[in-house]
Amino acid sequence: MSVKNVLQAVHDALDEEMAKDERVIVMGQDVGLRGGVFRTTEGLIARYGESRVIDTPLTESAIVGVAIGAGIGGYRPVAEIQFADFIWPAMDQIVSEAARMRYRTHGTWGCPIVIRTPYGAGIHGGLYHSQSIEATFAHVPGLKVIAPSTPRDAKGLLKSAIRDPDPVLFLEHKRTYRLIKDEVSDEDFTVPIGQAEIKRSGRDLSILTYGMMVHESLKAAAAVAGDGISVEVVDLRTLSPLDKPAILESVRRTHKVIIVHEDSLTGGLGGELAGIIASEAFDSLDGPIIRVAAPDGPATPFNSQLEALYLPNAEKIERAIRELAAY
């Protein structure tokens, strides 16, 4: 076991999978000589060479398009989009080609690619370096969407994604990169795609969340524990496919639920979660389904004070907990 942060865990997963399987290649802007803008691919080009660690032009549609072709051709490409905010030029390649490959070929061809990208706010990235894109892609059939919150999950889920026969969008919250540290096994291991995990057990209400908001939710749960409020924090980890059994089991156990995500409220993943709970666990609810999310603004403010006001945090989650616990 070694203490790692999320950035190091992602790097280790790439390194280990490249060493294990020569079909695994990495491509993207500045992933080679520079080692990536966040240094997640640092040193890989020296170890595996330019034929497997490929610096690409700043053309997201080409990065994903080439990855799709390489995947069909027998490779296991890991394509990096430098910031999630710039993924939109590759939208057609991801949705119309990668996600539909298995369906359109009647199962003959898969598209074993991973698209890694840093997402989320909290680092004063402003308009074009803070977006949360998960809700847009989580409703695309044929595309798996993963958003880990811890180093162990980041490493284990990325290894699973690379080995998966179909396309995976792998979201790495950039604020967790160096902030969140934990013990990670040095042995080869994977974390199953599609399985949520209870990060804190509780009996009075459940919080469903993912990414950086897992840690804000854990802070809020700890803050109310002294007042006798027992909060369960469920880390979804995989956003598509959702772990419906784990979600429903937690809600039926605690009878109250708060959904927390950094993305804007309207159209966010919380609406889908609320729909699942309302249709399949309504009789278990002893209070309203509460969502804590960012407001429906066009972008995260650059100003640090406005950014803090805009984003969900432990204090806002704590207020929601106390409100729901009072029902």
What does this structure look like?
The protein is of the alpha/beta class. 38% of the residues lie in helices and 20% in strands. The chain has two domains: 2-184, Thiamin diphosphate (ThDP)-binding fold, Pyr/PP domains (Rossmann fold, 3-Layer(aba) Sandwich), CATH 3.40.50.970; 197-325, 3-Layer(aba) Sandwich (Rossmann fold), CATH 3.40.50. It has helices spanning 6-20, 44-48, 60-72, 91-98, 101-104, 134-138, 151-163, 176-179, 212-225, 244-254, 269-280, 304-310, 314-325, and strands at 2-5, 24-28, 53-55, 76-80, 114-119, 144-146, 168-173, 181-184, 197-200, 205-209, 231-235, 238-240, 257-264, 290-294. A seven-stranded mixed sheet has the order 3-2-4-5-7-6-12, sandwiched between helices. Strand 6 (144-146), helix 7 (151-163) and strand 7 (168-173) form a beta-alpha-beta unit. The protein starts with a strand and ends with a helix.
Features:
327 residues, alpha/beta, Rossmann fold, 2 domains, seven-stranded mixed sheet
- At CATH's second level, what is the architecture of the largest domain? 3-Layer(aba) Sandwich
Task: Note the overall shape.
Answer: globular
Radius of gyration: 19 Å
Mean pLDDT: 97
- Please list the strands of the largest sheet in the order they lie side by side: 3-2-4-5-7-6-12
Could you please say which CATH topology of the largest domain applies here?
Answer: Rossmann fold
| Number of helices, counting only DSSP H or I runs of 4 residues or more | 13
Low-confidence stretches: none
Q: Provide the domain count.
A: 2
Share of residues in helices? 25-40%
Strand content: 15-25%
Largest sheet entry:
7 strands, mixed
SS content category: alpha/beta
* SSE succession: EHEHEHEHHEHEHEHEEEHEEHEHEHH
- Fourth CATH level, the homologous superfamily of the largest domain: Thiamin diphosphate (ThDP)-binding fold, Pyr/PP domains
Give me the count of strands.
14
At the first level of CATH, what is the class of the largest domain?
Alpha Beta
The N- to C-terminal Cα distance equals 44 Å
